[in-house]
What we know:
This protein is of the alpha+beta class. The protein is 16% helix and 34% strand. InterPro entries: CoAse (IPR045121), NUDIX_hydrolase-like_dom_sf (IPR015797), NUDIX_hydrolase_dom (IPR000086).
Amino acid sequence: xxxxxxxxxxxxxxxxxxxxxxxxxxxxxxxxxxxxxxxxxxxxxxxxxxxxxxxxxxxxxxxxxxxxxxxxxxxxxxxxxxxxxxxxxxxxxxxxxxxxxxxxxxxxxxxxxxxxxxxxxxxxxxxxxxxxxxxxxxxxxxxxxxxxxxxxxxxxxxxxxxxxxxxxxxxxxxxxxxxxxxxxxxxxxxxxxxxxxxxxxxxxxxxxxxxxxxxxxxxxxxxxx
Length: 225
């Protein structure tokens, strides 16, 4: 992973891929479990992605490039639908979520980069709107209180904990895709970023995301898993 610095006090930029495909019971999202040998966030569940490289064309390029490096996902299999507003981590990393549709689930054979990823799995996107197998903890950042959400998920005999920034991004994505709020208080942090923290990123509203998803879901591009 080649990282580039944005210089000054501006936080580094990253992008993550919210890669969706249609399963038997609705949309599912691809997730990874980070390698237990990594120096930061080892063993945690995350979305494919990473810091921007100076050669990346845009945020979608960053997210799909990193997904290819981490789990062997060919960018040609992903139709990028939209970008969500940036999230700012407590370490002042500016994270741009990129929503994309996996056009052919059967063509994707996960090949994890063992240096970065221990496991690849998928989960129903709608679970991040339900108050099931979820708990939250109140935290404080620069004088503001907010909630960190924790979702327990089990598949193929394996148990995963999806929490923190990843859970927050998926709650926001699910709310937009399904056009309804979660069944619990979201209470996102009211970050007061440093000057230049948003780095001139356009604040995008994705009103067409559900239309785009519906278009793909009713066409020939979706392959049921």
